Amino acid sequence: MPGKKALGRIILTASGGPFFGKSREELKAVTPEQALKHPNWNMGAKVTVDSATLMNKGLEITEAFWLFDVSPKQIDVVVHRESIIHSLVEYTDHSVLAQLGVPDMRIPIQYALTWPQRFPSPVEQLDLVKCGVLHFSEPDEDTFTCLRACKQALFRGGLASTAANGANEEAVRLFLNRKISFLQIGELVMQAMEHQPDAQVASVEDILSADQAAREFVRHMVGV
Question: Sign of torsion, CA 185 190 194 197?
């Protein structure tokens, strides 16, 4: 197996959610019902909204950063509408390995329970011929600002990522309760992340305090 020195990039794929290709103008009046209509995955409300805002990829970037001890510059996101390729690893020789499968959460859930062994799955077999063509696009971080906020949080370090996550938790709750607009989710996440003071993480209490402060910041900005 190649060592860490051979790792060039981790490439995470995003479905793009239900609003792929939409402009900020088109997203001004988006409803919770529209945001919950994911084209490929059947997930809970919170995760589905995170997919619509691309916050889910921001969180995955954060997870990859900590799990694999790599630089933020080594983690990329590409929009892949079919959700057949779930992640890729590029090595320093520019060869790329991809993990493929039908979009069904039972596969990763089962493997999480049986790792490192693999067992027969109830999920249908991937048919590449039936898939036909796979498409890839660059994510629109100007429209879906949650992704940009999470990237900036990693470069800032400290408790910035905690603030982004806490703000998103509260903003999504408010959106689902029709207290804020869809676009306000990303705006509030960015503002809370930028509002978080530079500070090193010294304890779990620091993380919990920053999380609570970010949630309170969102509520204060919205006036609820």
Answer: positive
pLDDT, tens digit, for every residue of 139-175? 999 999 999 999 999 999 999 999 999 999 999 999 9
Identify the CA nearest to 137 among candidates 207, 202, 93, 81.
81
Give me the DSSP letters along 8-37.
Answer: EEEEEEE--GGGTT--TTTTTT--HHHHT-
pTM as predicted: 0.91
Torsion angles phi and psi, residue 86, rounded to 5: -100, -25
- Could you confirm whether domain 6-222 is CATH 1.10.1740.10? yes
Burial class (CB in 10 A: 0-12, 13-18, 19+), 184: middle
Per residue in 184-212, pLDDT tens? 999 999 999 999 999 889 899 999 999 99
